[in-house]
Amino acid sequence: MATLLVTGGAGYIGSHTAVALLEAGHRVVSLDNYSNSSPLALERVQRIAGRPLTAVEGDVRDAALLARLFAGHAFDGVIHFAALKAVGESVAQPLAYYENNVGGTLSLLRAMDTAGVRRFVFSSSATVYGAPDLLPITEQAPVRTTNPYGATKAMVEQVLRDLAAADDRWSVVSLRYFNPIGAHPSGEIGEDPNDIPNNLFPFICQVAAGRREQLAVFGDDWPTPDGTGVRDYLHVVDLAAGHLRAFEFVQRHAGMVPVNLGTGRGVSVLQLVRAFEAATGQPIAYRIVGRRPGDIAECWADPTSAERLLGWRAEFGVERACADGWRWQRRNPDGYRTKGGIT
Ligand code: NAD
Ligand code: UFG
After folding, report:
1. Does residue 137 contact residue 155 with C-beta atoms inside 8 Å?
2. Share of the chain above pLDDT 70, in %
3. Residue whose CA is at the smallest distance from ligand 2 atom 15
């Protein structure tokens, strides 16, 4: 049994990973400032797993708090989710993104180094590949980012590579997620976007729930089989399991390695809409509009490194992710703000 610091543990992916870690018997300390989440998520994590965790409210940029945390717990490793993640917002507020995502990670790595804790699993993103030349995308594809959010992920990866090269006691996996969707099958935790969702899956859920009239499909003139954008949608429960495997990997290996987490399958916008309708019986009204600036046509992973290095592969398809995501949405129409909680 290990003790892990999970930053951003109350967030969408962090909460699902906390369940996976607790269910595997590990101890979890979550550090979250709740800037994009609710402490209620952590109560539900404990209910699902049937085990307690330690929830600390605070910021990863707070060096004094980190020093106290590392002094108070014998951590075996850190899984670092805490970051800002909205691409459009990062273009408008680059300083906030560099401060939080790069500055926050530097402060965390410094505290880890001082405490002698050097096992690190980082939340990176397929966004570091920009518009790929070749599909499927391997980890050898060039890194070229197109917005400040993506740049923060690429910069942190560079820091991690340099750190591991300088000191062979560091052991780091940078997980490049493709498109996480869905929710825990209990319907108790899931994605809870503030405002109008930027991403396709939560938008579809809100159309199904009657919160939005229709989905705007951003272009049907892409060079793809049905003209709509193609992505690699990955069930968040599979993604969470990938973090457990990555933590096991950093316990046994030194160095820094980037690893794609995706299914290896491309699914178009219209295919995802149809899968959602088939899995839930809910019709999704949509209309085709112009392309969204900055979008790419197609993006899916070569997930073979994840299988070879981590012994991980995605188990669930999009139908299962749609059914699970809809259960969360139906029971919590207003996310963690829903009055009376789940029904
Ligand atoms: P999320 O916003 O739900 O979770 C992030 C959590 O970190 C939130 O609970 C937030 O309150 C917390 N946080 C933010 N800044 C903090 C700070 N300075 N100190 C302490 N806590 C802080 O997002 P998510 O979807 O769960 O994403 C988790 C990670 O995965 C992020 O690093 C994100 O960039 C990355 N990622 C997400 C996706 C995706 O599509 N969801 C894709 C690729 C990568
Ligand atoms: N789309 C629509 N309508 C919408 C929202 C999205 O048609 O209302 C389309 C997009 O054009 C794209 C596909 O649905 O073709 C997926 O879009 P998302 O916004 O859900 O996901 P992206 O692949 O654009 O980006 C996401 C995250 C990024 C991350 C990237 C890779 O937002 O932060 O996945 O992990 F970097």
Report:
1. no
2. 99
3. 229
Q: Which of 12, 149, 177, 233 is catalytic?
A: 149
Residue with tokens 């560079």: 158
Sheet holding 255-261, edge to edge: 54-57, 27-32, 3-7, 77-80, 119-125, 171-177, 255-261
Nearest C-alpha to atom 29 of ligand 2 is from which residue? Answer: 127
**What does pTM read for this prediction?**
0.98
Interatomic CA distance for residues 217 and 289, integer angstroms: 6
Question: Would you state the structure tokens that stand for residue 124, as one six-digit string?
Answer: 């990176």
Closest ligand 2 atom number to CA of residue 272: 14
CA distances from 183 to 3, 320, 329 (A): 25, 10, 9
pLDDT in tens, 243-278: 999 999 999 999 999 999 999 999 999 999 999 999
Please say if the pLDDT value at position 157 is more than 90. Answer: yes
Dihedral, 294, 195, 183, 76 alpha carbons, nearest 10 = 80
Q: Please identify, in words, the CATH class of the domain defined by 3-337.
A: alpha beta
Tell the residue nearest (CA) to atom 39 of ligand 1: 180
Rounded-to-integer distance, Cα 47 and Cα 255, Å = 36
Domain boundaries, given as residue ranges, for the chain:
3-337
Say how far apart CA 142 and CA 125 lie, in whole Å.
13
pLDDT of residue 62: 98
How far is residue 198's CA from residue 177's CA, in Å, rounded to a whole number?
Answer: 17
Quick one: pLDDT at residue 302?
98
CA 204 to ligand 2 centroid distance, Å:
12
pLDDT recorded at residue 340: 61
* 226-238: pLDDT as tens digits: 999 999 999 999 9
Q: Is 59 in the pocket of ligand 1 (CB under 6 A)?
A: yes
12 lines ligand 1 (CB under 6 A): yes
Residue 296 alpha carbon, nearest atom of ligand 2: 15
- For the CA of 226, the nearest ligand: 2
Which pLDDT belongs to residue 194?
A: 85
Pocket test for ligand 2, best of 218, 233, 259 (most atoms within 8 A of CB): 218
Could you confirm whether 149 is annotated as catalytic?
A: yes
